[in-house]
Amino acid sequence: MQVHSPSAARPWVRSLLSAAALVVFGASAQAQTILRWGDVVGGSHPQVQMIDRVAADVKARTAGRVEIQSFANGQLGSSRDMIEAVANGSQQLVTEGGANFGAWIPSISVIEAPYIWRDPQHLIKAMNGPLLASYNEQLVKARGMRILGAVYYGTRHVSTTSKPIKTIADMQGFKLRVPENDVFRAMAESWGAKPTPMNFNELYLALKQGVVDGQENPLPTIKAGKFAEVQKYIVLTGHIMTPRLVVVNDAAWQKIAPADRKAVEEALKAGMNWADEQIQAQEKSLLDEFKAAGVTIIQPDVDAFRKATLAIVPPKFEAKWGKGTYESIANLK
Question: How many domains does the chain have?
Fold first, then answer.
């Protein structure tokens, strides 16, 4: 009987064996869980970079069993679109401002109330403690979404296309783009402005074409959105410090093995800490960058903005937020 060595095997047999090995390897390496994570802000923003960092960390910690896919710049839709998609499970993760979840937790919009936070540290500490746990419990029950953490989005300021804003009187009739929620609209109205709700991914063109007179966002978002290209003034109103929530579809979350869920939580905590540091660092350096690009920075009468806002907004929303809630959060240590 003639014996054939392995090297003498027919080429088609070797090819078939190689293909079979690739199929087995591919099956073993394929992620067991894929989480689509969306954000409306652009890819250069620290909170989008955070997604990429968390994705790489999760892949390493879970040996590829959990894969996070990043979709920045509103690729998956508007804020409302993505929140609804996470609620129904067609998208698994979203980073969004807390007030946008007010349809299910009416009181949560207080965390984006004007002048409620003293500084970023006040916000970060409060929003990753018992306060967040309370909102999380309500959101899971109301809509099947779970809050995994909160990040500091930055301190919001007004920017304008052509009008210098120095006093609150300068805001009379000013068409100000605001996010699509009641608190921001009420704040703009307290200044005498005309609030114009609009999706974030429509904003650059609206500013360029003069559909609105200006907008309000943190400095890192103004940079990521390239708004300085079409804005002449940045007005340091410092009116809102926004906490953004990382929210997951709870049914998808529960399907992940406990050990892998823990790995995601650890990676997310590290990523959020990094993003918080990046945002605060950018806030310190960006004014000089904007000045160098030809943007005029204005220091307005902030006390006048604050007084006008606090006279109207907290009383208007007291029934929704709960009596004394604004004051209790503002006074948290």
Answer: 1
Range of the domain at 52: 29-330
**pTM, 2 dp:** 0.86
**Strand runs labelled E in the chain:** 33-38, 66-71, 93-97, 145-160, 175-178, 194-197, 214-218, 233-249, 296-298
Q: How many CB atoms lie within 10 A of CB 291?
A: 12
DSSP conformation class of 24: H
Percentages helix, strand, coil for the chain (3-state, rounded to 5) are 55, 20, 25
- Residue 104 three-state SS: coil
> CB of 181 within 8 A of CB of 113?
no
9 pLDDT band (50/70/90 cuts)? very low
Q: Is residue 16 part of a domain?
A: no
Residue appearing with tokens 């609620």: 87
Taking phi over 0 as left and psi of -120 to 50 as alpha, with beta for the rest, 145 belongs to: beta
Q: What is the CATH number of the domain that holds 177?
A: 3.40.190.170
Q: What pLDDT, in 10s, does the model give residues 73-104?
A: 999 999 999 999 999 999 999 999 998 998 89
